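ping. complex inputs:
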Amino acid sequence: MSNIPEGLKYSKEHEWIRLEGNKATIGITDYAQDSLGDIVFVELPNIDDEFESDDVLGVVESVKAASDIYIPLSGKIVEINEELVDSPETINEDPYEKGWIVAIELSDTSQLADLLSKEDYEAFLEENA
Amino acid sequence: MADLQRTPLYNVHRELNAKMVEFGGWEMPVQYEGIIKEHKAVREKAGLFDVSHMGELLVEGSGALDALQKLVTNDLSKASIGRAMYTPMTKEDGGVIDDLLIYNLGLNKYLLVVNASNKDKDLKWIKDHLSGEVGVADKSHEYALLALQGPISQQVLQRLTSLDLKEVKFYRFAIGAVAGVPCLVSRTGYTGEDGFELYCHPEEAEKLWWSLLQEGSEDGVVAAGLGARDTLRIEACLPLYGQELNEDINPLMAGLGWTVKIDKGDFIGRKALMEIKVQGASHKLVGLKMVERGIPRTGYPVKVESQQIGWVTSGSFAPTMNANLALALVKPEFAEIGTEISIVIRGKAVKAEIVPKPFYKR
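pong. complex structure:
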């Protein structure tokens, strides 16, 4: 069973979102990293890049395949996790802490209502996985 | 996964919590504990693979050798009893129908091991083109195939058999019991390591699997899936049908000139391959190493300046070299070692260079 921590929001594209005021930190869930397998490459956006929700934010590649990461909320990139460039496996090892991918400044807080709670995401995984 | 075939070891894979994927119409284990871990185990110790999806065709009859010589490019007369030979089987234009391993079992019997996804096509092609006193039969359901690959393979396997494995040299086989299971034990593989492929009856496959894994586990033998098999064969630059080979790619493009024996007598594709040999192939299979960040994948275009000069046939992160490597078919004028090229990854040209093959040699 995948690890789904309390206190985070989730998306149906298997991202987690940690909210602090107007800032959201985003990564991929334990389920996502486990499905991908050994992650060997991460392509990150640049600071100040602006995205609409559901845009492709970046790419994670496992040994087998490349997968797009979709941004669940609109906003501007304020931080990127540069450690992932040299140590992409951090996402496998610690998806919810050291394996965070980007932090954004939200441009439309009304989108927060579309995110899933821990319980919603658990139910979503049970139905779809 | 509906309608997919399962190997006799399906329940073993479930028990080991393998991740299952579709491959060539079969539900196969892609990994158990992780591709990189399994890859490294094979390079350093040994890995046990289920490759029972491979097809086995038996060609038998007093005219078997002559008939097969007309179907394949390599010179099967050089494969005496007890030996295996790798060979492409080509169409009139030299395009590859399949690449196969042929065992000379003796008594005018040859066992052809073919790619799972090509088996039905191969069987029809062989039936349509066999001539003389010979027949072909699909025996795939009578064989399970396990591969034990890695430097300690012989040491582990020897503890389970009375066959003298040091006498079973590369590309030879012997018949005998392993852990009490009757097997054809072949010193072949698809990983670039020393190792063995074991053919046995499907009903005994589980017993053989667990015996090998239990015997080897203290020495570091692990179950390994198709994911590691792919990264291992890419490092060793062994071709995969559907990527480095297909009906539009001839053996001379794929660097398999050593398997095309023009002088052995007539065979399907001989005339075309002879002409290609004289004129030079349209593309050449090369090794590429990424200079900038990025992972090359099958189908990505290869460019020099703005001109497309070829395409990636297989690419991956290579765990042994800790580098991103690819095999690619490029126009011959760009095939020289050291040539700087770029690979188009998600619309962006990323720098790479042509490097010697194979990437890995034991």
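Residues 57 and 227 of chain B are 26 Å apart (CA to CA).
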